[in-house]
Amino acid sequence: MSAAGSQFLKAQGSALEESSSALTARVRGTVHVIGAGLLGASVGLGLRDRGVDVTLEDQSPTTVALAADYGAGRLRTAQDPEPSLVVVATPPDVTADVVARALASYPSAVVTDVASVKLAPYLELQRRGLDLTNYVGSHPMAGRERGGAIMARADLFVARPWVICRDHETPAEALALVESVALDLGATLLEMTPEEHDRSVGLVSHLPQVVSSLLAARLLSATEQAIGLAGGGLRDTTRIASSDPELWVQILGANREPVVELLDAFAQDLASFTDALRDPAQTGARRRIADLLSSGNSGVARIPGKHGSSERFSTIQVLIDDTPGQLGRLLTDLGELGINMEDLRLEHSPGAQIGFAEIAVLPEVAERAVTDLVELGWRTL
Fold first, then answer.
1. Per the similarity annotation, which family is this (predicted)?
2. pTM score > 0.85 for this model?
């Protein structure tokens, strides 16, 4: 991306943060965040933007100091009053331990965790016989390929689902406080049981991670010539393969039963597809291949679009010179043409000073968008 394009997108992000900061926070009192990595620091940044007092804690002094330097909150002191809410944002293998300590240290506070697995920590806390009245498990469906406070964003949770897992003993005021944090951070609330959550994320998050990583691993033995042919399809399917392996070992281990069940079903589909492709001339082989591919069409059509809708968009590919200012000019032209950009993806052409901007627009404006952009001198595919 050109320098001007980067500056343009940063400006858009700053405008969003400034708009968000003007909102009045629903959360009252101090929020204490334990775990100052990507999610914890992002929670802190988002709440601080709304004027909420946020204190930070992490087992690593460097990590918590870095998150504080980025503005995610301040280090908690012995003189601070008990927080109204504690957000535990630690790795899954220590979540139950940290939640238990938080419940003991802050008996009047509501405690939530944002771990990506919900059943295992809940069952472990139950096994210890703890009073879980003030505990509400939750999980924001947001993240980035790289972690740490340096990658944190105040708008990380905007328009993303935030799952709340409560039981029949959860007081209304405790539930309302956790929901207030999610809403203050711009998320969309969903309520599930821990079992429903873990089965759901196994399908939409954990299985894709395994498939993406295993596919990317096949590239290790590929020649440089083959890698040079890589296009959008490979990038799309391997994007999340750069995620932290250590963290994913914990996540997959904690949610192994749903993931194993999904992998077994996936392996059966793969075996059926492979068998048909091995001898396409056999009776019914081509139909089996077509049916499996068609099922993929039907499945992808169910993936929610912008703001949680199931609406599908048309894609326009625009060639842009890899020089400063080109992306900014394209976005400005789209705005002046009155064309709302629903999504944007950039791809560079290896060995050439040219890139591709893949722009998603509503189907009813796609034809006009192409015509108008060509009239302005842009090249489209």
1. Belongs to the prephenate/arogenate dehydrogenase family.
2. no
